[in-house]
Design goal:
The structure is a homodimer. Chain A has about 260 residues and is an alpha/beta fold. Chain A is built from 13 helices and seven strands. In chain A, strand 3 and strand 4 form a beta hairpin. The relative contact order of chain A is 0.20. At the A-B interface, helix 2, helix 8 and helix 11 of A face helix 2, helix 8 and helix 11 of B. The complex binds adenosine-5'-triphosphate (2 copies) and magnesium ion (MG) (2 copies).
């Protein structure tokens, strides 16, 4: 029985896409069958996996409108054991399209729940917002990974995100867990970086993954080649960090 | 006659808030009268100027709903010559509130156009999205500054943003100019950083500011003290970069 995990944080640029793409690729290396759903109109996860966004004809938009099944929307990637439902720029319009539907928060859940039978992990990359698109991902998910950049502004928005998760748990998805908080872009030379790690570990203790993702330029180079870090530079610190994260998550979810 | 400038880019974490706060403070140092409007529900510009977001009772939300005039919503900051209209978490709801109004894109424009008489510059910090809130800012503005992080994903979204600006110019605001593209978080030691600068200068030539904002940890430390970079560390590279940017903009807009 597979697990659906949303990667969400309304703060921009904290490493949501980098985490979704590289965790998905790392789980694939550990022989897990993985599906990545790009739920961000920016379509960075789609291009980060080497797919030409301009040529995408269908994907998450059709999935949410229920004009196409998940099976029909799934495409293969070069990354072993990793499939993708791509995003397209039309996804920007989905929030206005869904606003008047009765079950507007449940469109994703209805479209993907059965995929737990064919994948070990379904990872959903979210946009930097807490709008209807992200609400759909949180309602469909079993758990959420919260990337937290080791910067001051990243701490500010955490309270708001946790409140949103609580209200999703109350109203739409009582089973929603927090898979973990992931510290990203950590630079051990910077006092601020160390302060943020200390602060987050103090407040959230065992909700925080042991694995910390360090700042590593290879991670920001990989998407320009349309490759995950595993394919681009498996010997890099970034690859080691994300493989460790994959191990940590698989270990935690032993029963999968 | 003052100028209204929106600082916008739907890509998250590219330096919109850092630019708005520190450019506003730098223009204040150059004896310009400046108003900063925080149009992002994250309220990072508000907290970055030392205002306690939890204690904010009114601000950009009331401004857009027209339940309070700009004058009533303006508060003073510790930064010389810099006033603020703060954001509050209720701003998240404004997009749904405005959707059914006839003139939904013009609510900001109507509320702030007269402020050109009392300020030299009105800077609007936008959220990482191209929704109704950002559309309001682009419709109200004379020009837009586009921060571009020296990273690969930052280039990807540029086309979409320029298309949005074009459609705002066509439908809502024919006078909207591009004040400039600002390269941010530049690290001269990184090949990727240099490639992005080259690419952007090649494609956009004189639309790109001469001033480049370098990656500088003092810029990310300052908001944790609620201070602009000028107040926090006027001798830092970050302060020098933003003061240079302020000079460049004032020179370009000589007639103000
Ligand atoms: N550990 C890291 N080391 C170095 N660079 C990183 C790291 N993680 C992410 N980056 C870079 O930082 C930028 C922001 O990361 P990313 O785009 O993954 O964040 P995001 O949260 O998905 O952004 P958005 O809010 O726009 O969706 C990207 O250019 C990415 O390549
Ligand atoms: N030149 C710089 N050098 C070092 N750090 C920087 C620089 N500019 C911004 N930062 C840091 O990078 C992070 C992202 O910047 P900022 O929050 O200003 O981006 P943003 O575009 O406003 O993000 P959002 O999309 O969430 O609104 C912040 O933690 C900020 O302190
Ligand atoms: Mg992303
Ligand atoms: Mg911001």
């Amino acid at each position: 029985m597979g697990k659906i995990i949303a990667i969400a944080n309304q703060k921009g640029g904290v490493g949501k896409t980098t985490t979704t793409v590289n965790l998905a690729a790392s789980l694939g290396v550990l022989e897990k069958k993985v599906l990545l759903i790009d739920a961000d109109p920016q379509a960075n996860a789609t291009s980060g996996l080497g797919i030409d966004v301009e040529s995408v004809e269908f994907g998450t938009y059709q999935l949410l409108e229920h004009t196409m099944s998940a099976q029909e929307a799934i495409i293969k990637t070069d990354s072993p054991n990793l499939d993708l439902i791509p995003a397209h720029i039309d996804l920007v319009a989905i929030e206005i399209e869904l606003v008047d539907k009765d079950e507007r928060e449940y469109m994703m859940k209805k479209a993907i729940s059965h995929l737990r039978d064919s994948y070990d992990y379904v990872l959903i990359d979210c946009a930097p917002s807490l709008g209807l698109l992200t609400l759909n991902a949180l309602t469909a998910a079993d758990a959420v990974i919260i990337p937290i950049q080791c910067e001051y502004f990243a701490l500010e928005g955490l309270g708001k995100l946790l409140n949103t998760i609580k209200s999703v748990q109350k109203i739409h998805n009582p089973n929603l867990d927090i898979e973990g908080m992931l510290l990203t872009m950590f630079d051990s030379r910077l006092r601020l970086s160390n302060q943020v790690v200390e602060e987050v570990r103090k407040h959230f203790a065992d909700m925080v993954f042991d694995t910390i993702i360090q700042r590593n330029v290879r991670l920001s180079e990989a998407p320009s080649y349309g490759e995950s870090i595993i394919k681009y530079d498996a010997s890099s610190k970034g690859a080691t960090n994300y493989l460790n994260l994959a191990h940590e998550i698989v270990k935690k979810n032993k029963e999968i």
